[in-house]
Each structure stands twice: as structure tokens, then as C-alpha cells.
Amino acid sequence: MAQETQAKVEWLEYGDFIRFVQRREVKAVFFNYDHTQAYITFKNDRKSYTVIPRHPELVSILLQNDVNISVAKPYKLSQSNNESSSSISSTAIKVLALISLVGFLILFVGSNKKYSQFQTQALKETEATTEAIKENNRLLKEVIELQQIRSL
Asked: Does the N-terminal or the C-terminal CB of the chain have fewer CB atoms within 10 Å?
């Protein structure tokens, strides 16, 4: 598993999640409203999330291992649309800025062969940054969802 910082929530494979539950290392599980994802809090306060497949015995396994279970209430459609559109707009602006930067670099450096490695690296970094932005936006939505539910 990847090392995490205090602010980072790490991805956890479902099988690893079940093993941590059975070893009684999980304190709480917060399911999203459609029960397809879970936000996990470990007894050492580490945070993770995972995708939940159909597993009829999951709740029983969690309860048998003293895991606190909570489930999000569904959002009103208008709220989720507003949040989604602002998040998408923010992501689109960041992606366009990155694409413009790469285009600028290609325009001024493209004809010189010694910079071809630089171009390749810049493109890879742009793609990685774009993916990181998408992942951060997704995680931010989950955190907002958790905060809104906890404030209810």
C-alpha cells in the first residue's frame, strides 16, 4: 500500500479491506448513498476508500468485527448538479491551461531534436497531472459528501 500523508486518502483493494476488517483494524465504514463505495477509518485514524461489490454478508462481517457503519443520504438532484458543474468547470479550466502549456512548449521547442525527450516528459507529466486533478476532484466530492452528512 502506498504511504499516505495526513491529507491523503489512499485507495484500498476490496480484498485488503476485508482482511483489515477481519484483523479488527477498522474502526468505521461510511458507505455512499448507493452502497458502491466506502470511506474507511482505521483504528490508527488512517483513511482509505474502496469500491464495494455486491457482497450480501458484508454488513454481518462488519458487525461481527465491531465496525461502526454509516450510510450517506442521497442528495437532492439540484445540489449534485450544481456541485458537479462547478467541479467540472474547475477541472476543465485546469486541463485547458495544461494543454495550452504543452502546446506552447511544442510550438517553441518542437523543431529541435534535443528537446524531444523534454516534450515526451512534459506530455507524460501533463497526463499524470490531469489524472491527479480528476482524482483530487473525486476525493473532494467524497469529503464534501461526508462533511454534509456529518453536519445533518
From this structure: C
Enumerate the β-bridge partners of residue 112.
none
Kindly state the cell numbers that stand for 80: 449534485
The structural domain count of the chain equals 2
In a domain, 5, yes or no: no
Would 4 be classed as within a structural domain?
no
Cβ proximity of 134 and 91 under 8 Å: yes
Which residues, 6+ apart, have CB-to-CB distance to 36 below 8 Å? Answer: 51, 52
Assess whether 61 and 105 both reside in one domain.
Answer: no
Q: Is the pTM of this model over 0.70?
A: no
Residuewise pLDDT in 10s, the chain (152 residues): 444 445 577 888 999 999 999 999 999 999 887 888 889 999 998 999 898 888 888 888 999 999 998 888 776 544 444 555 566 667 777 777 777 777 766 666 555 555 566 667 777 777 877 887 787 777 778 777 777 776 66
